[in-house]
Write a structure and sequence with these properties.
Largest sheet: 3 strands, antiparallel
Distance between the termini: 29 Å
Oligomer: single chain
Order of helices and strands: HEHEE
Shape: globular
Strand content: 5-15%
Structural class: alpha+beta
Number of strands: 3
Length: 83
């Protein structure tokens, strides 16, 4: 559990070690912020593709490697246009 107190904006990096099934949950959790999030070490699994499609349906901009795939294991999620 993470408890945050105070009226200051949060900014920083959180390193999480976990199983591959953590990534879809982290993708959804990134919507809690108002600014873009970057997930690193993202595996090429079907669950990530499914959640990416669902997020894009709701206006989240999801981008990854230079050619659009997860070759570098990095995923950028921008909730700016969420409906």
């Amino acid at each position: 559990m993470l408890e945050v107190r105070g009226g200051n904006p949060l900014d920083g990096t959180v390193r999480v070690r976990g199983a591959k099934n953590l990534v879809p949950k982290a993708m959804v959790a990134s919507l809690l912020g108002e600014t873009p999030s970057v997930l690193r070490g993202v595996p090429r699994i079907r669950d990530v593709e499914i959640v990416t499609g669902l997020l894009e349906l709701h206006g989240v901009r999801v981008t990854s490697g230079p050619d659009g795939d997860l070759t570098d294991g990095e995923l950028h999620l921008d909730p700016a246009d969420v409906a």
